[in-house]
Amino acid sequence: xVAANVVALIVMLAIGKSISEFVxxxxxxxxxxxxxxxxxxxxLVAEGFGxxxxxxxxxxxxxxSVFVEMINIRTTRKTHVVRLxxxxxxxxxxx
Length: 95
Description:
Elements: H1 2-25, H2 28-48, H3 55-75
Helix pairs in contact: 2-3
């Protein structure tokens, strides 16, 4: 179990920067991840109250959302990416 945790830590350290850069280039992925967390939280609350929701429905919805996001990223690849929390260049300010 300790070895699995060490391997997971090494993998996270190795790919963390590339994932961070990907999310920086595609801010809609943040919204997708937050919606997944919200959906999982709501399912856990519903199951706590005794309602059963099939895991296939949850995985299907998540898979469809990822598929749509991949299409969105691929179709908007050639457009200008908006960088948030950065000061504008002098050339970008209208006169």
